[in-house]
Write a structure and sequence with these properties.
By secondary structure, the protein is mostly beta strands. The protein has no helices and 7 strands. It starts with a strand and ends with a strand.
């Protein structure tokens, strides 16, 4: 059994960011830990602020998340889905 991943915020973005849009740090970014099934977008998890960055051009109302390593994914309620553009 793996670890538990908490997600407080889901951020939809078109290009891969260098920094997390929420906390503006780069030291705890983990790529492709979580998979988003509806958009098949590339994902980056910021474990500092518990934000999941999904690189896609779609804007889904609901998300389907799965782990690539068998980890447990917990969405904190109420979680926020927002679109960021630079």
């Amino acid at each position: 059994m793996g670890k538990t991943i908490f997600i407080k915020e889901i951020i939809l973005i078109l290009k891969e960011p260098r920094l997390c849009p929420t906390c503006e740090k780069e030291d705890r970014l983990e790529k492709d830990i979580v998979r988003e099934e509806r958009t098949n977008g590339k994902t980056i998890l910021c474990s500092r602020c518990e934000a999941l960055i999904v690189i896609t051009n779609q804007h889904p109302r609901k998300v389907e998340l799965s782990s690539t390593m068998g980890d447990i994914i917990m969405l904190k309620e109420p979680h926020l889905i927002r679109k960021v553009s630079y």
